[in-house]
Amino acid sequence: MKAPWVTYRPEIQVLDATIRDGGLINDHMFEDGFVAACYRACVDAGIDAMEIGYKASGKVFAKNEFGAWKHCSEDDMRRVIGDNDTALKIAVMADAGKTDWRTDILPKQQSVVDVVRVACYIHQIPEAVDMIQDAHQKGYETTCNLMAISTVHESEIDQALESLRDAPCSTVVVVDSFGSLYGEQIQLLVERYKKALEGTGKEVGIHAHNNQQLAFSNTIEAIIHGANRVDATMGGMGRGAGNCSMELLLGFLRNPKFNIRPVWKFLQEHVVPLRATTEWGALPPYIIAGQLNQHPRAAIAWLASDQRENCLDFYDKATADV
User: Fold this and answer.
1) What one-character DSSP code corresponds to residue 246?
2) Is 64 helix (H, G, I), strand (E, B) or coil?
3) Is there a contact between 219 and 232 (Cβ–Cβ < 8 Å)?
4) In angstroms, rounded to a whole number, what is the distance separating the alpha carbons of residues 192 and 204?
5) How far is CA 83 from the centre of its chain?
6) What is the pLDDT of residue 5?
């Protein structure tokens, strides 16, 4: 019997999504010092990429209602990270239907951004392919995040992957948006993506949510079956129940290029204090939403109400129409 978990796979690259996904719990109202400390932790830890936020449309998300990291202007990014003269790649997420990508994504030579991560639901694949082409032509590395994949029929997944075969994206990411998937399902999806993209040179990625406290184990499962691009966040911070925790992931990967100490430093100095005022994690409404394969928006609203402790009432409401 072999013990592959004591070695490492050098092809695996890690992306930190703390500011982008974590920003969904506070409307991206992070102070510059928090973002700068996260950036420095990523650099010092040897993490491959940092997703610093969204390139969201100011028409859809008013700039006076959200923090800087919802829109990621060049001035805001450079104010915090300068010209990023490090090996860390800077990524932004561009949502199909919510991004003025033709105008707001500048040519690469004018930007500190390295990677544009296009995110879409299955019905948005045509626009996503156009967005990928546009960003590629502007000089960026591009990826595609297929969101809410737990709700998509297999034939639709296959059609989407066929469309992405010829698109100039380096990675296609399995996204468990609702935190509803189990290890066996992750295995099947990763293998399906790999087979569909075989011969293209594209990598398969994983972005897991923690509604059922499976984000870390599902990330491991994806890695075992060949996913080489993996997302995590500091302290698991992210929308609703949060994501795979960076501190768990780096501890698992064993790759000596990673240094976990800067992550623990960032957690101690910035994430622990943030928990005093900001909430995320596998709370009962998020667990229920994950078990029912439902979007967490209802759970988020419930927890913001005076009914937040009534988990049975939420369960009854959530299952009323199932």
Assistant:
1) H
2) coil
3) yes
4) 10
5) 23
6) 74
Q: What is the amino acid identity at position 257?
A: K
Structure tokens at 29: 């109202």
Rounded CA separation 319/163 (Å)? 35
pLDDT tens sequence across 184-206: 999 999 999 999 999 999 999 99
User: What's residue 35's pLDDT?
Assistant: 98
Q: What mean pLDDT do residues 292-313 have?
A: 96
Segment holding 50, helix H or strand E: strand 49-54
Number of residues in the chain: 322
Asked whether the CA dihedral 303, 305, 311, 316 is positive or negative, the reply is negative
Q: pLDDT (tens digit, 9 = 90+) per residue, 55-76? A: 999 999 999 999 999 999 999 9
Q: What's domain 9-274's superfamily in CATH?
A: Aldolase class I (3.20.20.70)
* Residue 293 and residue 150 in contact, taking contact as beta carbons nearer than 8 Å: yes
Alpha carbon distance 117, 120 (integer Å): 10
Q: How far is CA 125 from CA 9, 163, 164, 215, in A?
A: 31, 8, 8, 25
Task: State the DSSP code for 213.
Answer: S
Q: Which pTM does this prediction carry?
A: 0.96
Token pair for 258: 């990673």
The β-bridge relationship of strands 229-232 and 89-95 is unpaired
Distance CA 94, CA 117 (A): 6
Q: Residue 95 forms beta bridges with which residues?
A: 119
Task: Report the distance separating Cα 307 and Cα 233, nearest Å.
Answer: 29
Residue 185: which of 290, 301, 73, 107 has the closest Cα? 290
Which two three-digit tokens encode residue 146? 């297929």
Q: What would the two tokens of residue 220 be?
A: 């491991």
Instruction: Give the residue range(s) of CATH 3.20.20.70 domains in the chain.
Output: 9-274
